[in-house]
Description:
Order of helices and strands: HEEEH
Number of strands: 3
Distance between the termini: 73 Å
Strand content: 5-15%
Largest sheet: 3 strands, antiparallel
Structural class: alpha+beta
Number of helices: 2
Amino acid sequence: MDSHxxxxxxxxxxxxxxxxxxxxxxxxxxxADHLPPPPRRVSGxxxxxxxxxxxxxxxxxxxAVHDSGRVITAPSLRRLEYIEAxxxxxxxxxxxxxxxx
Length: 101
């Protein structure tokens, strides 16, 4: 209240604030924007250089065997191709070059 006994004015909403409906549509839309992409379905044989016997197990895990005999697994084909296979290649090249780790 001010000195005249009247109530203080109600502050106006901040400009640019996100309005939300009663049922939370904005929150659900934001959550949907950040979901990971669905798993990639592979219709033909998968090829990754230096690897053979690439397959997906019934539980969804991907498996591949390097030419050196090392078996790698990954939860997705993308991770198998771009992370796990790369790690094996680097370690194998260091091992065969005689470089000290």
